[in-house]
Amino acid sequence: TAEAFHDDLLAIKNSLLENDDSVLISGDFEELLQAVEVFGFYLATIDMRQDSSVHEACVAELLKSANIVDNYSELTEVEKVAVLLKELQEDPRTLSSTNVSKSEILEKELAIFRTARLLKDYIGEEVIKQHIISHTESVSDMFELAILLKEVGLVDTERARVQIVPLFETIEDLENSNEIMKQYLGYDIVKRWIKNSNNYQEIMLGYSDSNKDGGYLSSGWTLYKAQNELTKIGEERGIKITFFHGRGGTVGRGGGPSYDAITSQPFGTIKDRIRLTEQGEVIGNKYGNKDAAYYNLEMLVSAALDRMVTRQIADPEELVDFREIMDGIVHDSNVIYRDLVFGNEHFYDYFFEASPIKEVSSLNIGSRPAARKTITEISGLRAIPWVFSWSQNRIMFPGWYGVGSAFNHYIKAEEGNLEKLQHMFETWPFFRSLLSNVDMVLSKSDMNIAFHYAQLAESEEVRSVFNIILDEWQLTKNVILAIEKHDDFLDESPSLKASLDFRLPYFNVLNYIQIELIKRLRNNNLTDDEISLIHITINGIATGLRNSG
Description:
Elements (H helix, E strand, L loop, with lengths): L1 H17 L9 H12 L6 E6 H14 L11 H13 L14 H20 L4 E7 L4 H13 L11 E6 L2 H16 L1 H8 L4 E7 L1 H7 L1 H22 L2 E7 L11 H6 L11 E2 L3 H8 L2 H20 L6 H26 L5 H7 L3 H5 L21 H10 L10 H11 L3 H11 L1 H16 L2 H8 L5 H25 L9 H29 L5 H18 L4
Parallel strand pairs: 1-2, 2-3, 3-4, 4-5, 5-6
């Protein structure tokens, strides 16, 4: 094992030191020792991940083949948990049998879990530490994974060699996460699993689906509150809740300046570690050369340390008022966002006609298809093409829509409310980061270009959606600058402003070329060779905007 090899190297090192041969330790030997400490025999720890619906289907098949339950999926949540706990706690046998035929999906999943067991046995426990459950909606979702891990010997009554990590993604799931984790952490078998993991329980938070569901403010605020509540549950039980932030490259998917994002996390939610995803599109910029990589890694470490050791800046009593204010504003924002996205009968057609979503969907981007099934509704569309398309037509919709009206309603409700928001911006890191990201997104939008994309829509009713968006954009700009007490976007980021000013003329031109190419494509006036030009413009605009998908 890597541990045994490391012990041998230490024995050699100590022997050399004792015999005054320290000169032999420097150089290659030290580098080898360090490499084993950092990389083991596996280079990098990897996560497993699967959707909860797949786990349920597999467990239902196993229970049926073992003559335990014929219709597992039809049981209530309480009944499901009772069945699963009985199998986990009272019955040491496995449910699968070599003599019973299995569906293709069950065979595939069990093969993956067997491979995980093999890797952990031969390469070391650290090679795979977590299994993430996408769309965690209940306690049974977590115990279903435990059943599958038990099948290959990775879980027993005392120990889980792979930690079960729920991923809460939608607004509804984030709001329910508090109750789900309360129940899950209350079971004795779970307490033993966590005790064997040094009292750590990881929870993954999804930024993309929550934003598409309820808009930017609703997503950010729901995530903030969920972290506070989940941290409190852990503290009450003596468990260190650690968060894995599934951030995308764009503000609409949790992106934005990393340092600000970490230092604006709810106070007390970063104990001694934080995990976050870096999107493929930004990895080249952040870690493409040694100097940039050192800078960005140091920034992440210093931000995490800052959040861990810094005393709370905002007055705790004031925070209670701030949160009440935010609850009202966020509810209003959610209604405004959903009224357009899911309530306006022409919005769907506007999105598909006035953005290059169809062309984006044909590109090989992202790790999954553009839609979960087929692109017939907004809710089924995956987050990357959704955000990416709004970036391409320069509206940047997911990063700001609904913000302006919600704040404006609050400001107009009572004299002095604008001053309250300005005070929140000055004293509350979370609120400051929230608004600064909106500022940055608006600075990258261009409603003149967006107008030309709107002309791609065939009917006047569909094109009229643009006017609704334009009015909200102008209102959001005015309100954000008023709260920040700024004259223009990016007043606090002169270097980014200068960089954008330099880049904009080059990729603005690509937008106009793209519009013309899409127009010709939809009129069947483009050859197959020329269609690739659309993809070139898409890549060029994405590169110019940087955090675009």
